[in-house]
Amino acid sequence: MFQDTKAFSGFSVNDIEAARSFYGETLGLRVSEENGLLTLHVAGGTDILVYPKEDHAPASFTILNFPVEDVEKAVDELTARGVRFERYDGMPADEKGIMRGWGPTIAWFTDPAGNVLSVIESPS
């Protein structure tokens, strides 16, 4: 039934302007806005909808993963841009917030609305 549809994902934030700045300036994604909604344009032609929600509650799981060849380099660059990396109980991470050796190398951070994102190692 849906095999030929181009599905997309979306998530809520409590502040569209803060989201636009974070995703567009801090992360460097192409962002567009229409009717108070943001669209994140990511590689591969996929779009992600970001919508405002007054009673927004941050997701308690990773809503968006950014595959990168070098997680440590991505963490260093994002840290220099003011991004703070998260550490979770039972998920051992180094001093930079990078978890290694328990699956793919990964580091988690949050957007201004508290939604969880990651940079995750992806072989080239």
Structure report:
The structure is a single chain. This protein has 124 residues and is α/β, with parallel strands linked by helices. The chain has a single domain (9-121), classed as Roll (2,3-Dihydroxybiphenyl 1,2-Dioxygenase, domain 1), CATH 3.10.180.10. It is built from two helices and eight strands, in the order E-H-E-E-E-E-H-E-E-E. Strands 1-4-3-2 form a four-stranded mixed beta sheet, covered by helices on one side. Strands 5-8-7-6 form a four-stranded mixed beta sheet. A hairpin with a 3-residue loop joins strand 3 (37-42) and strand 4 (46-52). The longest helix is centred in the first third of the chain and has 11 residues, at 16-26. The protein is globular and about 40 Å long. The termini are far apart. The model has no long low-confidence stretch (mean pLDDT 93).
Total number of helices = 2
Assess the beta-strand content as a share of residues.
25-35%
Q: Tell me about the largest β-sheet.
A: 4 strands, mixed
Low-confidence region ranges? none
Distance between the termini: 33 Å
The strand line-up of the biggest sheet is 1-4-3-2
Structural class: alpha/beta
Average of per-residue pLDDT values: 93
Which CATH architecture would you pick? Roll
Total beta strands: 8
What's the CATH superfamily, by name? 2,3-Dihydroxybiphenyl 1,2-Dioxygenase, domain 1
Helix and strand string, N-terminal first?
EHEEEEHEEE
CATH topology (fold) name: 2,3-Dihydroxybiphenyl 1,2-Dioxygenase, domain 1
Shape: globular
- Percent helix, as a range, is 10-25%
Q: Briefly, what CATH class?
A: Alpha Beta
C-alpha Rg (nearest Å): 15 Å
Protein name: VOC family protein
Organism: Nonomuraea phyllanthi
